[in-house]
Amino acid sequence: MAILARRFGARSRKTSIGEFLGTPTDLIPELLAFANVNGSDVVYDLGCGDGRILIEAATRYGCRAVGYELDPSLCRIARDLASREQVNHLVTIHNADAMAAEIGGADVVFLFQPPDTVSRLVPELLKQLSPTGRIVAHEQSRVRCDPSPAASRPLFSPAALTVAHLWKADPTPGA
Q: Model-level pTM greater than 0.85?
């Protein structure tokens, strides 16, 4: 795990849905647990950057993972890292605009985007997910979104803090 974390240095680049600022690596296990990811899930990350969430999901749970990233150099980095971690058979990176992603096959969709982007995307994504699908977004400023998240929780690590939000495609109790 420490080797993987060292490989994921902080990078910041502008993309179509916002600037790439990678999720702090030590928060990823908590985010995956908050999303209740398991081995039978298909995890998507829209604006996946260097693929760190996808690679960790595939490594930790053995699930399939799909990323959309517009920046070709970040796609190359993500593919290289997936190969180095020997999960390239589980991780697919599309060099494409995340706004045009087809997420019908997703069980979990991750978003680390500006709050205004999250509030625009969530209602549309919920329409495309299966009844058991879920969306996880995290941020350092308040997300105002309709519908409201089914759950929100602060997540802490020695080096980072975020607030994670979970939306469920079928928000009925017990779903």
A: no
